């Protein structure tokens, strides 16, 4: 920051030192002494800011003691109210601070004095009457630092700061004004961020509705195409698309698109790999919609091809048929990684594009290299082929154009297909419009070299390409994926998740081994795992879960159903790895990481969420293992309006269950219609306890045991005519 003077020097040492003619010697940098706890001033519910409450400046206190007003120019996408002014305070930034809100031209809209400041960190002062601001209009927020030593990050506005709905422009932002009183700041230096902010409350606090009909379709071994229906904001006559669509892959934000955009191509993915996708809407006020339904998309295997094409019957599926009947030559720019020959032109015929048709191959500059046979008039729709009389030789890494002449128009189209992403189906590639300066090309009113990139449209023209050498030997492509349907677990509860292994390659894999180590950082053990279900297969576990299969044929798969029990809380990662005797030509999908969050222990066991109804059940459920063939899960009965458990059969009068971990039994509900019935609870190394039951009412029993119970025996005087629910257990640490 520069002081006004006839002569000045700027020294960059921990900040800015301004030396003015006649001033005292430059001060040494303000020492950074330890402070008391920094109290972050929180934003209230629904309020927005540019900088949040956890970000920190590069320099907490500049080496400048001049009295100065510092601020930032900002705007909002939506109308609302400025509730207050915020700034980050460092050592030496003392005195009485005032915050101000200004129009872009310098009219003062509101001012406020900061009270009860902390020694450092974020400070906030709220206007007595919030100040209303308009959408898409620039304002300036600032504060006056009478002792200087403001927080600063040099080049903090080298690029714009966008935190919708708030935005701070780049380059000429970060404003200051030196003076003995507060005033409108207009100067800027080094695009500096002086850590001044607002507490903004948008008028609109209602989020848009979630996007619907999300689909994820593989485009190639490295790309997945997403489409969805728009997130809708507002209601009645004023409703419309949300301002933005946010695309997430595996819970990570990967794209922010305009609300009118309803498709996205996710490129750079690993072949034969599954990804989870979701889309959310965001309105002008920054309100986020609920998530769309999460969908799974799996990239295509990177198989050796001979011949090769850009699209197949799965990925080559046009959206529309052009209604225009103007004759047109339509095509696509493409290249190949390896030399080879083109034997045919492929095209997707629309239902009313009846021809005749003829195909062409061109150099990138428009030299006609070859012409195919001409078809007679056609009917129907779908992929068609036109053969060249003689295969045409292509050089590697050279751009060509393939096209066909639609004599009656009406050709298949998908507009905006090449906007930001191309198609990668190695060894063939069709570049994006960005890479190729336009792709999806046409020539109207006659057959000629197509050059017009109309709406970056995919006209669904393709080649049949034969590599001079196959793009890879036939070998295995083992892929492993994991799924955890419940989404979250609990300390001491059994987890159920699946591990699936698939051979996407053209050759049989032998000596297949799946390895899953115990996740680090948790007391955790594998409880059980099913075998792959083929002759010679096996599973075993101690420190690792290891399963094996002697062979896995092309296209075959197996799934391991895993039961495991964590003792502890946090998020752990199940890392599965698959291998075989053969080299795998897509090693990127040989491992898969599955995050599994584990929360606190289940301390009240209710049976309404247990699987099944009116049937025998046993085995592990939640924190309990139920003894074999002695328990029955019942539909709502008697005093229980949800599912409960009883004994499996009239001849049984008792059944056992055991607990995972050290648990005390704190209580249990029982119900019977029988007068005089009793319930007896026995625990290993504990005295038996007997409780009378009141007919026609729920009786809550409370054992007096003070130590953990590993195995609980439940006995009734009337057998299966007593049901149980709401088993209370002591928490696990």
UniProtKB/TrEMBL annotation:
The lineage of its organism: Bacteria, Pseudomonadati, Myxococcota, Myxococcia, Myxococcales. InterPro entries: DUF11_rpt (IPR047589), DUF4082 (IPR025141), FN3_dom (IPR003961), FN3_sf (IPR036116), Ig-like_fold (IPR013783), OmcB-like_DUF11 (IPR001434). Residues 210-302 form the Fibronectin type-III domain. This is DUF4082 domain-containing protein. It holds the Pfam family DUF4082. It comes from Corallococcus aberystwythensis.
